Amino acid sequence: MAFSSFWKYCAPLSLLLLLSCSHTARGQAVEAENVTVLEGGSAHISCRLQNYDGSIVVIQNPRRQTLFFNGTRALKDDRFQMVLFSPQLVRITLTNVSVSDEGGYFCQLYTDDTHHQVATLSVVVLPEVPIVEVKKEAVEGGLMELSCVSPRSKPPATLRWVRDRREIPGVISQQENGKTVSVSNTIRIPVERKDNGAALICEAFHPALVGQKRVRHYSLDVHFAPTVKIIPPQGILREGDSLSLTCSVTGNPLPRDIHWTRVNDTLPERAEKTGNILHMSRLSQSHNGTYLCQAHNNYGRAADHYTLLVYVSPTSHPAIAQPTPPSFRFSDVHKDPGAVVETHSAVPYAVIGGILALLVFTIICVLIVTIWCSVRQKGSYLTHEASGLDEHGEVQEAFLNGNDASQGKKEYLL
Ligand SMILES: *[C@@H]1O[C@H](CO)[C@@H](O)[C@H](O)[C@H]1NC(C)=O
Ligand SMILES: *[C@@H]1O[C@H](CO)[C@@H](O)[C@H](O)[C@H]1NC(C)=O
Ligand SMILES: *[C@@H]1O[C@H](CO)[C@@H](O)[C@H](O)[C@H]1NC(C)=O
Ligand SMILES: *[C@@H]1O[C@H](CO)[C@@H](O)[C@H](O)[C@H]1NC(C)=O
Ligand SMILES: *[C@@H]1O[C@H](CO)[C@@H](O)[C@H](O)[C@H]1NC(C)=O
After folding, report:
1. Which ligand has the shortest distance to the CA of 21?
2. Ligand 5 pocket check: which of 236, 310, 343 to mutate, most ligand atoms within 8 Å of Cβ?
3. Are residues 107 and 152 in the same domain?
4. What rounded mean pLDDT belongs to the chain?
5. 37 assigned to some structural domain
6. Is residue 93 located within the same domain as residue 60?
7. Which PROSITE patterns does the record cross-reference, listed alphabetically (predicted)?
8. What percentage of the chain's residues is helix, strand, coil (to nearest 5)?
């Protein structure tokens, strides 16, 4: 019986011939087991034999192509391997299973009454981590529409949206794609500026994931119009000072260009713009004006203004200006508002200094005169002179509350 190579090529034809040729064997039977396997995995297809008497065993794929003819490979597909052929069990394995391999595999035993059983191969496709599609972008005050999509699974995955551990109900839709299913869960939620960056989660569940889930994190990207605020400098500004105006900008997307202008005028020549900072060194009164910071994105525009007034410096010599005298430094450090007050505060220092010097001089004079007088005899002609000095002493007293003068007076009265 050397016809096995012939059978290999005309297996379906063989049936009739076989029926007439082979000897009868009562009680022979075959049993097949259904198989479920993950896509990409390996399937073991088994045909159990009962009372096997050496008949030909043929295994066919769902398209009824013969894979193995009594142990010999018939179809050129290396993914199929015959791993066992015993009188009890014939087993083949299929590696790297795909959904197209699904279907009934035939275990046939060619006897006088041809016997066959079908092993159904089912392929399970696990969902990937779902993807998020933005159907309608989030704009402050509007409704955003988000879809969570699991493009391939079998049986279909279950999707749910979660925010702060609470489920957001959505609209589920399924679309069959050959043997797999695409599932989506679409939510519509109102969004505000404060929702920007909020964390959402889309979870995919699947029976074959046994309790586990595939999770996609998504953070809300809420677009909003810019806000603009100029951070003003502290205190007043004088000629020669330098000034940095910072324009604080928000917005989503963050405005890329920040526009500085001066109302009804051009920006001063020496003004430098770096990012959101406008810098002006050595201010002069020609810098006076209203400065505008403007920014825009696709969702709106915003502006803020700052009015600059440059005051005359207290030393008031624009030509000299550079080496700052101590009094100027003092006011510079303290930045007391109001130039007028400061100009006044500078003047009394000079006046008080002068008065003090005068007083000290007077005290010395009085002392000298007093000593001189006490050394000499008390003369009536001196009394007149002393009364003049006395007046001086009273003035002194009023200023200092000191007792030098009164002492001098007492001494004189002795
Ligand atoms: C095998 O699967 C097929 C198709 O799904 C089904 O009709 C049959 O009853 C199953 N057989 C066994 C033994 O589970
Ligand atoms: C089929 O293969 C089995 C096992 O190798 C063998 O025992 C049997 O004789 C073969 N049958 C035919 C008809 O070649
Ligand atoms: C498994 O099969 C798929 C197509 O079904 C193929 O793209 C992939 O390369 C195969 N993997 C291996 C390891 O053979
Ligand atoms: C700019 O000029 C217009 C018209 O001359 C005037 O009405 C407006 O007050 C000016 N604005 C400033 C900030 O100077
Ligand atoms: C600039 O502003 C200061 C303060 O108000 C004012 O005294 C001065 O006259 C202004 N100078 C010019 C050129 O406008």
Report:
1. 2
2. 310
3. no
4. 78
5. yes
6. yes
7. IG_LIKE
8. 25, 40, 35
